[in-house]
Amino acid sequence: xxxxxxxxxxxxxxxxxxxxxxxxxxxxxxxxxxxxxxxxxxxxxxxxxxxxxxxxxxxxxxxxxxxxxxxxxxxxxxxxxxxxxxxxxxxxxxxxxxxxxxxxxxxxxxxxxxxxxxxxxxxxxxxxxxxxxxxxxxxxxxxxxxxxxxxxxxxxxxxxxxxxxxxxxxxxxxxxxxxxxxxxxxxxxxxxxxxxxxxxxxxxxxxxxxxxxxxxxxxxxxxxxxxxxxxxxxxxxxxxxxxxxxxxxxxxxxxxxxxxxxxxxxxxxxxxxxxxxxxxxxxxxxxxxxxxxxxxxxxxxxxxxx
Length: 306
Fold this sequence. Notes:
Layout: H1 2-48, H2 54-58, H3 71-102, H4 107-119, H5 124-138, H6 145-169, H7 173-181, H8 186-214, H9 218-222, H10 256-264, H11 269-303
């Protein structure tokens, strides 16, 4: 009996030791990742902060590094993301709702689900080649802001669909059963209960997707993004009727990742400082976008009472 207790005590100590070692390993890995991130951001700030003046935001690219700015790049990035948000998010959420709530359970649905899940891991250059063949050559949209936005919408579509399905699955089944019990239809259950309760989870997927899209370079280079643009697209709003214009969708474009790529490939420390400053702007845009989405998600979660 004494030897049995000694053996059990030894097993227990080994399990506790293994657990403590895992906690130390996890904490060390996390601290290492944070330290690398802080070092990279610190180096970016040291190189780029001296260039972050008002003229940097209001000037077009130039062959002279001291006079170059990111006006056309950040405007192009904002317009491309506008198209991406307007097309990718509604289609992705609708597809996720259909697959989870309405699609019949057969081999075709299983095939679509596996395909969508695998598409989330496809390299972004593949989306660029797909968009080049479909949007540029087949539909004749050209190398425009519309094409770039649709390309990035394709890129985030699998992420949004998977996140939507996971968020819908997290809604307790008792809510659906209660709604069915009082005579609600499927559409009423989805619109009045499932979607409002799963919106916080859906927003998480949208945040992840948009954060990836805003920094992508390969797909928009593939469809013909320009590295030097000294003009802005037509304004979406005008003071004269009809007040709204869509001409900017057919305009040539550049974006912040493209501008950074152009500056990094040029010789000279001044261009590298410009690239670091543009990188800081891109990171701030991403953080602001994520911060706004996280705030909205937090407010929505507070209103949910199961």
